[in-house]
Amino acid sequence: MTDLTSSIKNITVIGAGTMGSQIAMVAALAGYGTSLVDINERQLEQAKDQLWSRVDRDVEKGRRSAEAVEAAKARMHFSTDLEGAVSVSDFVIEAAIEDLKIKRELFANLDRIAPEHAILATNSSNIVSSKVADATNRPEKVCNMHFFNPALVMECVEVVPHERTSQATVETAAALAESFGKKVVKLNKEIPGFIANRLLNAIRREALSLHEEGIASAEDIDVAAKTALRHPMGPFELMDLVGIDVVYLIRMAEYEQTGNPESLPAQSVKRLYEQGDFGRKTGQGWYSYAN
Ligand SMILES: NC(=O)c1ccc[n+]([C@@H]2O[C@H](COP(=O)([O-])OP(=O)(O)OC[C@H]3O[C@@H](n4cnc5c(N)ncnc54)[C@H](O)[C@@H]3O)[C@@H](O)[C@H]2O)c1
Known about the structure:
This protein has helices at 18-29, 41-60, 66-75, 82-86, 100-113, 130-133, 167-179, 196-212, 218-227, 235-242, 244-258, 267-275, and strands at 10-14, 33-37, 76-79, 91-94, 119-122, 142-147, 156-161, 183-186. The protein has 291 residues and is α/β, with parallel strands linked by helices. The chain folds into two domains: 10-186, Rossmann fold (3-Layer(aba) Sandwich), CATH 3.40.50; 196-276, N-(1-d-carboxylethyl)-l-norvaline Dehydrogenase, domain 2 (Orthogonal Bundle). The chain has an eight-stranded mixed beta sheet, with helices on both faces. Helix 10 crosses helix 11 (244-258). It starts with 9 loop residues before the first strand and ends in a 16-residue tail after the last helix. It binds nicotinamide-adenine-dinucleotide. Nicotinamide-adenine-dinucleotide is lined by residues 14-20, 37-40, 43, 95-98, 102, 106, 123-126, 147, 149.
């Protein structure tokens, strides 16, 4: 714990989906009183079951101590009561569904109910925090705090200020992520996609363009990425894993923000999306997973 995090005792994470549930567990494991809030009771039950079995497995495999896991479980609260949780929180991490209207409503609400000193961060991958900060009366205490999936495992957290975010907010968010055991990447200003996803997109864009121009097959481009660049997966294999639908929708969301035709999905991605070939989840994408 540093001076910056010593005043943070309670954290609320909003949204008990893929990201929010694991971010909350990360916070509880780091010693914070943590509330995980969702509008959907079933989602909260499911998140609890999945988290408990995941950390119990970590104990069985010797990756975490039983004491640390039991203490973290005791620090976690699962609730649909946003006001009850947020009104006693020193830091809020929003990881609700990727919908600007819902996020703006949430931030206006959070501003009303959170203690005055509380920082309000969003884990959004595509919505920069200036888009939600102006729904609050504390824009200087709003920033992006971007975790990677799966949040219990991936080390990187990008901390991204908008024009009016204070330096104190950036430093506190960064110190909090470090106290979670994460590596922090601080951006000086906001840009859609932040750093890691922009790097990934640049490689993906080039791979798709090489393929669409008929320079090489998807398989051979993947082999080059893996054997020459030592990437753990090729760009086409990764699209199949993430989901062609997710890749397509992220491009469309960026296009809506930038209005730049270069943000649009590649033709080949659009075709797979329209065919319903979403990758591993449907058994067919760039590769076939029939078996
Ligand atoms: N999935 C990823 O790989 C990933 C990675 C980094 C960041 N993100 C970002 O994290 C956020 C969440 O993504 P996810 O993949 O976990 O989504 P998800 O669909 O798995 O979970 C979203 C959850 O939000 C809940 N929710 C919806 N409206 C709510 C409200 N008003 N109040 C409280 N809860 C509400 C839903 O019930 C659902 O449980 C998004 O902003 C996304 O951009 C996702």
